């Protein structure tokens, strides 16, 4: 029997059922806590599931919300505002996934692959909650990031009592979450290891590596040796450590070993599963987290039932404990679970905050306005222009930079190009592309492009980013003008000295450049470890640096028309 506790939340009394045991169909029991009002009556339930530990989520009752870059911000207190959920007359049920926290069972691999399907566990969990005397049989879900992804995995299993979901900041295509344009991102390492100032997965001793479970020791030895031949990996101490001692951090070992897209990532990709979802889905994401915006929009297009998409303002990181979006979330659940006609379904399906004007663009699809792709060409003297460079290579010599490995320098070299000040408000909404004609003197490098809105007073804000590992330059058949896709299924070394066209995908954004402002494009092969944008991200939220010295030449002449392809809007929103 669960322990019953009472908590006073500023005059609101909350009853807490601690350490509930939730049986799965294979006999494993998951652990959960349930928070509700004192009146003993059935209520609809909002379920939160993750491997981050239900005890950690309880800090939402006692810790004031922290925003980045506060050192008290904690990345994994993401299950929502418990007191607010109870005040809105829902039961807040927070559970530990198998192999984590106080739950039984093994956890193998990530939430997209390995072990028992986490969607199947979510189905069993939701149906158990619906049968409890304190639940009225109606269930929704709550939580951001991993909690958000779990909502999609659960909905794809179609549990009968799950009426709707509200997903904020979820991660979907797990390859694109961990390798941006083929460039490894360190944030998954941080979330899974734990670190100073941030929680990690609350794994028990029963977490296992999918790779170690799949391959023999001899095969693992050969695969690890091959991975260590990548100079980027070999130059980074953390990666050398995890590859030599995989049982120290099994989940991160699996990610490092799977540097190409394929079956390991696709086995339970939430976007692939999305066509199975026919219940109402509300998707929310803030600008500045490009890879999750891309996945959120792709998921929105794949959903079959009633759906909404809301893209909020910069900056990208919500507070911890997570409290944002609750007003909209309760309107959504009050309509779909409680049957309150509050007009939310009369509103446009897509709502996008536009940086610059700080207005909203609405419509029935993404992008919410019609767009025309136009090119801004890289020119001599570090200019961006709607007209391409008329001079040939012999007169318009390439721009270039040499980047030493970060093992020997802390300076990141950056090339930049800028438009003239805009004379009238200029709006762009959608995704874009950067076509760079480049020559490098090594078989590989990273291309990292960041676009900024630079104001006359010198302040600037990040608008969007693009990443591409040079050896991942191949495009696939889905690619169209301004909307490139890379399969990332193989790495093809670059011939040193050859001029190649590299097409970077620019993550979705919505911004208006006001009169007097400039669009600035910055190119590097590593990113600054600290700047105005990175200060808003969690510690370690940067990308694996290039481990070899590389000279880059960027050609932008009459023959090699390096350019940005951007989505300029052509009509007003609804």
From TrEMBL:
The keyword Signal does not apply. SMART domains: PepX_C. Residues 330-565 form the Xaa-Pro dipeptidyl-peptidase C-terminal domain. It holds the Pfam family PepX_C. It comes from the Bacteria. One of its GO terms (molecular function) is dipeptidyl-peptidase activity. Keywords: Hydrolase. The keyword Transmembrane helix does not apply. This is CocE/NonD family hydrolase. It comes from Nocardia aurantiaca.
